[in-house]
Amino acid sequence: MKKFAVLLYPDFSLQEITCLTSALTLWFGEKIDFIASENKEYLSEEGFHVIPTKTTAEAKIRDYDCVILPGTIHPLPALFDNELIDFLKSGMDSNVVFAAISSSPILLSKAGILNGKKFTSGYFMQMADTFEFVEKSNFIHKGVIEDGNVITGIGMFFREFAETVLRRFGYDIGENFMRDKPEDFTEEELTFYWSEDDYQDFLVELKAYT
Question: Lower CB density within 10 Å: C or N end of the chain?
Answer without folding.
Answer: C
